[in-house]
Design goal:
alpha+beta, 5-stranded antiparallel beta sheet, 21% strand
Amino acid sequence: MTLLAIILLLIHAMSFGDASDGCPDDIGTNLMYYNTGNTSLGSPFQQNWLDVYQVLLDHAPQAVSSEFSHGQSPNTVSGFALCIKGSNCKGCLQTIKANLDRAAPLSKGARLCMKTSTDVCYMRYEAYSFNFNCLQGLSSSSSS
């Protein structure tokens, strides 16, 4: 994909964004970003991502974030999840995971802010540590 096509895609996605959806400003709603670096099926990185995902899924209650890092370098995975609106946090995060698995199954990092008819949630994982604190303010946008 050319740089121009990517820029046009981002502009298109931003023009249809809803400022009240609670998604981070740097990511369009229902627009996935993922790394081009890949891991392999059954690798330590992939297992660490599955472990991080399970912790995020178990600990991301409504309007509160969950963050977790797991594994030893170079296979460390850092993850963050936030349920912004709605009552089905777990289902929303499971939908994100299914979309990540379909679009970028072996990517070493991805993020998606998903908006359904009833819920808004956000999940990110990376092969490096990132600043969770910069995303903490998102939970304040959960009131509706």
